[in-house]
Amino acid sequence: MKKSLIFILISVCVLMSITFATYIVMTKFTPEREVFLMLQKMSEINTFSHSSGFAWSKNEKSTTLYANGGVDLSSENGMNYKTRFRLVKLLAGQDFNDLKGEVHYVNNQTYLRYEKPVPEILGVKLTDDQWVEFDYGELSGWGNIIVGADFPIKTFLTDGELSDAFVLELREMLRNSDIFLSSFNNITELVNGVNTRPIDVRFDRDALYTFLLDVIRVKYSREPSDTERVEIKLLSEKLSKFKIKFWIGIKDHLLYRVHVIGGVIDEDSDLFISMDNKIEFSDFNKQIGAYKVKQSVYFKDILSKHRESLLGLSRSKIHGSKNIVSESTITAKLPRQTIEVNNDRDKDGLSDILEKFYGTNPDNPDTDGDGVMDGVEVNKSLNPNGNGSLFGFGL
Known about the structure:
alpha+beta, 2 domains, 14-stranded mixed beta sheet, two-stranded antiparallel sheet, 10 helices, 16 strands
């Protein structure tokens, strides 16, 4: 009897040891597992806030876009979001463009407004407190919401508006995807007070190619064409060369920051375009502030006035065209501004307004003391306040 009890006790101990060892192995940290957990956790998030920066430089002329806002995926009517943005585009000589605005997407309606100076649209006079309202499917008729932002990478994901059903399906696809190769250098870092692990990742070219083909199938409910397969193969090749870093919360496995840096060859000019993109996420599953849209004007009315001015037609002829939205787009341009000598105190090529935008010292032409003037560094998408790329993470 004693031998039987001892045998049972030993068996139980062995079983417990095996179970504990299995638990340790299964829960042991690996960067691959951490990225997988992050994708799982982020797919369960319904609301979040974001703050992002995107910069690109071609021929040593820089464009910088900042945006911040909130996204709500919990609505029965689908995705809602609101975003404020500001674009600064440095031009030849001392000229630059500066565009600020706001876009809301609520219950399949898009609302857009600009702050002064507003874009110039022939035949239309916009004010800085005027919202333009778009029905679903009309937004492409405006052209680029962020006028002057000639984004260096255009894909099928930016072709037309994304339906709510597609966005939800895409979240589920990302949740179960295996498109990243990852590594970890055993350091931790605080991001807005949250202890995170910075994990270096890059796209697995072949896995990304397969994933993007599936995205085509989901978005268009058909098989990818031969042309699309070629384009996706080239896109996967480009993206696989980008350096990416995820800052993932140690306790909750949520994504608090992502930074992407790389570049592509411009197909039109054969010039290299360097790119730098940073996004920070916060306020997970917290209520997003109310969407406040004052009285708006309809996009169709603006398009009619614009077409009338372009073609010299009467309003009656314009209204007689049933396909005017599908046939036409708005032609808008940004007011050109000039850096006056007396507005650039330290003569570094950045006006005092731009110094504030980039966070540099308006009284010091070389804020970080590296021997290169602030304006030169900004135009090369380099960090004028320290090492690394424009957003300063040193990837």
